[in-house]
Amino acid sequence: MLMPNFASVTAATTPTFPLTFSGANDKFVYTPIATGIPETFTIPHDEYLGLAGLLGAMEGALNGSQEFGSFMVITENGSVITATSANPGPGNNGDTITEGNGGAAALGFTIVPAIFSGGAYGTNFTPPLIQDRPPFNPDSTELQKELWLHFENRIRGVNVWIMSDGSIVQDTASPENSNTDLSGVYPWDVNNPAAPYVRSIFIDSGADPQIPSEHDVSHDPYPVQFFSGGSTHVVSEATAAMLGDYTNFGNGYSDCLT
Predict the structure, then answer these.
(1) Tens digits of residue pLDDT in 39-53
(2) In sequence order, which residues have a C-beta less than 8 Å from that of residue 29 and are 6 or more positions away?
(3) In terms of Cα–Cα distance, which of 76, 74, 100 is closest to 85?
(4) ∠204-208-213 over CA atoms, to 5°?
(5) Terminal CA-to-CA distance of the chain, rounded, Å?
(6) How many whole angstroms separate alpha carbon 2 and alpha carbon 5?
(7) How many other C-beta atoms lie within 10 A of the C-beta of residue 203?
(8) Which domains can be identified in the chain, with CATH numbers?
(9) Is 118 helix (H, G, I), strand (E, B) or coil?
(10) pLDDT in tens, 125-137
C-alpha cells in the first residue's frame, strides 16, 4: 500500500566550522505556503564545531509554539542539514526557509529561498517481528512461570538502523537480517539518533571530591536512519530499495515493505 510521503528541504552546502552564532547571524525565516505568514527563529548563541552540534542548535531554535517548530524534524547526514515535515502528503511543498539576518546561509541554506518539495508517495516499512519474549513478567513467581510456560512466547518488533556506510543492523537477528553489530550504534544519543558523536558524563559516587568526567565517542560508521520496532514507518523509495536489496546477512526486508 502506498502512503503519503513528506516534503523536505536540504541545505545546499556544508557550513564552515567553527561557526559562531551571535546577534548578527542568528535568525532564519520559515514561511508556510498554506498561510503565507512568516515565522522567525533564533538560533542559540554559541560556537559550533560540527554538524552534530549544529543540529542541536536548529532543534533549539525550533522550541516554541510556532507552526514550523511543532512539526519539523531536523536531521544531518554527515555533510548537510535536512528539514523534513512530519505531516504526511504534499501539503508543505512550496514552504520556504529564507534569511533572517544571515542564519539560513550560516546553516548551509545558501540557495535562498530554500523551497520544500517532495511529499509524493513512499512505502511503509514495518521492522521484522520476532517471538522471543516469555509470556510471564520478570517478577512472576515460580508457580506463575510454570503455568505460563504452557503458552507461546510473545511477539515484538526489532529496532533497525541504517548506517552511514550503507550497512543495516538490528538489535536481534531475524531471517531478514542477522547483522547485530551495534558497535556503531551504542552508546547512542536517543535524542539525536543520526549523530556520529555521543557525549556522556560520569561521576564516581565513591570519590571524594566527586568530579564529573566527560566521555565522547565518535562512531564510524554511525546511524543515519532509525526505525523503531513495533511501528510502521513511511520511507522514501530510495530507502525502500536499500532495505529490500540488503541481503548480505539474510533475506532482506522485502517482506517488511508494503
Answers:
(1) 999 998 999 998 888
(2) 38, 39, 40, 41, 97, 98, 99, 100, 104
(3) 74
(4) 40
(5) 5
(6) 9
(7) 9
(8) 2-119 (2.60.40), 124-256 (no CATH)
(9) strand
(10) 999 999 988 878 8
Tell me the three cell numbers of residue 49. Answer: 564545531
Phi, psi of 105, deg, nearest 5: -65, -40
Under DSSP, the state recorded for 179 is -
Q: Is the pTM of this model over 0.90?
A: no
pLDDT tens per residue across all 258 residues of the chain: 344 567 888 898 999 899 999 999 999 999 988 888 899 999 989 999 988 888 888 877 876 666 677 778 888 888 889 888 876 666 788 889 999 999 999 999 988 899 888 765 557 899 999 998 887 888 888 887 777 777 888 889 999 999 888 999 999 999 999 999 998 888 777 667 667 777 778 888 888 888 888 878 788 888 888 899 999 887 777 788 889 999 999 999 999 988
Provide the residue type at 122 as one letter.
Answer: G
Beta carbons of 221 and 182 less than 8 angstroms apart: no
Cα–Cα distance, 194 to 211 (Å, whole number): 30
Cell numbers linked to 186: 551504542
CA 149 to chain centre: 38
CA–CA gap between residue 23 and residue 9 (Å, rounded): 25
Backbone φ/ψ region at 252: left (φ over 0), alpha (ψ -120 to 50), beta: left
* Type of residue found at 28: F
DSSP string, 67-102: HHHHHEEEEE-SS-EEEEESS-SGGGTT-EEEESSS
